[in-house]
Design brief:
43% of the residues lie in helices and 10% in strands. The protein has helices at 53-67, 81-91, 98-116, 126-135, 140-159, 201-208, 213-225, 229-234, 277-289, 313-327, 335-348, 353-360, 365-371, 376-390, and strands spanning 11-15, 23-31, 37-46, 240-241, 246-248, 251-254, 260-263, 272-274.
């Protein structure tokens, strides 16, 4: 296979525009999919972003790594985690979901780059990263996500041949035959500090009595449908099929970046759900009160933005729902509490796991199992049946042992 042996510096020039400030343009030679040599160019930015050539050259360092990734002397031995992050941000991150982009950027900015940004890739060691994460202040979930982002970075580096192995996930060099054996990557527990809050049906009913109609409907829909917060916010009138009594869960709402209506989390999430008559009546009543009732309008629009955006459910939770439940002695309620509650109540009612999986629209049962918790009363009843089944009769108070034939 052809491998470039020369290293391209490329050319960087400041070019005039008919309108607006001058722009920095970078040019280099490339080979297209048919093997033909082509001369490419890319605008780096204008004078406002890069006021001098030194700043512009620093900006093209990441692009220069891309165009020289097949070179045998591409300088990757000097590559740092900071440079890798810039390359990943240019080549791979833009193709991920908006929430993933923002999450990865946050973990990189607040965790990874302050500690490892200046370190060369070849000096990143599995045990050092593991020790750092164990000693860092933060939840197990946060540390596990930081590890996930670092692993994604090094997988990207392996793919682009900037390094031969991923010290975060396996530490095994590329081309070792795929025999992983015992885990040799960074070991960080993702175990929750406490189990998710799950409410009893009576507690949900009690909390509902403390809410106004709109907020009652929000909690009722979330508890009855088991939707994710973004899916509840993204619900539009055209998704409510009143003729066939179904909900079409097609989108999720992302509040950052000015508010974005995006596709659901997984393909399994985009499935219809039945509409109970009580939910139908409540929604039709809410429609008579709402100021936005066109098919494309949100069922729960934001009055602050004239209905152009979905209602801020985080604010509703903080100002309305959580205080209402706290008044009746129920603390720690979040939107996902009602999703966990839906799964657990369905299990308590004897519904099959596959039914619960499809109702919560999970992609596999292992995820569904994390949502299911047995209520205290159910566990007590199960224990009573178990003890009565295994305890010898003569050990039970008030009973005598029956004669046992030799």
């Amino acid at each position: 296979m052809f491998r470039r042996t020369t290293y391209q510096q490329g050319s960087l020039k400041l070019e005039e525009r008919k309108r607006g400030p001058h722009v920095w343009v970078f040019r280099w030679w490339d080979t297209d999919a048919n093997g033909t040599r082509v001369y490419r160019k890319q605008q780096i930015g204008d004078l406002g972003e890069y006021p001098n050539e030194t700043a512009a050259k620093a900006a093209v360092d990441t692009l220069r790594l891309t165009i020289n990734h097949q070179s045998q002397r591409n300088g990757v031995s000097q590559m740092t985690v900071q440079s890798l992050w810039k390359h990943y941000s240019r080549e791979e991150l833009p193709f991920k979901d908006f929430s993933t982009q923002d999450g990865y950027s946050s973990y990189a900015r607040n965790w990874i780059l302050p500690r490892w940004g200046h370190v060369r890739l070849r000096r990143i060691k599995t045990v050092e990263v593991e020790r750092w994460l164990r000693e860092a202040t933060g939840s197990n979930g946060t540390k596990a996500k930081v590890k996930c982002v670092m692993s994604a970075l090094f997988s990207h580096a392996v793919r682009w041949e900037f390094t031969s192995g991923n010290p975060i996930s396996s530490g095994i060099a590329v081309g070792s035959g795929g025999k992983r054996g015992p885990s040799t990557g960074v070991r960080v527990s993702a175990k929750r500090a406490k189990a998710p809050t799950v409410l009893l049906p009576e507690q949900v009913k009690l909390g509902l009595t403390m809410l106004e109609f709109r907020d009652q409907l929000l909690v009722l829909l979330d508890g009855a449908l088991g939707t994710r917060r973004g899916e509840l916010a993204a619900l539009r009138w055209q998704d409510c099929d009143f003729e066939n009594d179904t909900f079409q869960i097609q989108h999720s709402y992302y509040w950052r970046r000015g508010g974005i209506l995006k596709s659901t989390k997984t393909e399994a999430s985009a499935k219809p759900l039945p509409m109970h008559p009580a939910l139908k009546l409540a929604l039709l009543e809410w429609r008579t009160q709402s100021h936005r009732t066109q098919p494309a309008d949100f069922v729960f629009p934001s009055r602050l933005y004239g209905g152009r955006k979905a209602l801020d459910l985080a604010a509703v939770l903080k100002r309305k729902i959580r205080p209402a439940f706290e008044k009746v002695g129920i603390t720690g309620v979040g939107w996902h509490t009602f999703r966990h509650t839906a799964g657990t109540v369905l299990a308590e009612l004897g519904e099959h796991q596959l039914t619960i999986r499809d109702y919560l629209r999970h992609s596999n049962l292992s995820v569904t199992n994390k949502y299911l918790q047995a209520a205290s009363k159910t566990k007590r009843n199960a224990q009573a049946r178990l003890v009565e089944a295994i305890l010898p009769v003569h050990l039970l108070p008030g009973k005598t042992a029956e004669a046992v034939a030799p």
